[in-house]
Amino acid sequence: MIRDAPVKFRIMEVFEEGGPQWNYEVVPKIMEEYGMHSHHEQQMVNYDIIEMVSAGFLEEGESVIDEEGKFNKGHLLTKYTITPLGIATVDDLKKKVRHYE
């Protein structure tokens, strides 16, 4: 793990370490690690994941409407996977960042 990493770096690590995961699984993990508690911060982490799809680091898998309120009732739950570009980027960061544990 890269100590004190920017949130987006850590998101890629989580997907690299854990394989395909739903946004409702990853977002709380990131929030806990970074001491985030608000609904706004929850949405920002979710948005970071969406941005990483646009950049090609993650890709979307299946999606369902959150009918139970697992994350945000009535909204989309999406399963994401890290891409080969994302894996290469994480590996490169691990080589270059001083605080890798």
Automatic annotation (TrEMBL):
Q: What is this protein called?
A: Uncharacterized protein
Q: What species was this sequence derived from?
A: Methanomethylophilus alvi
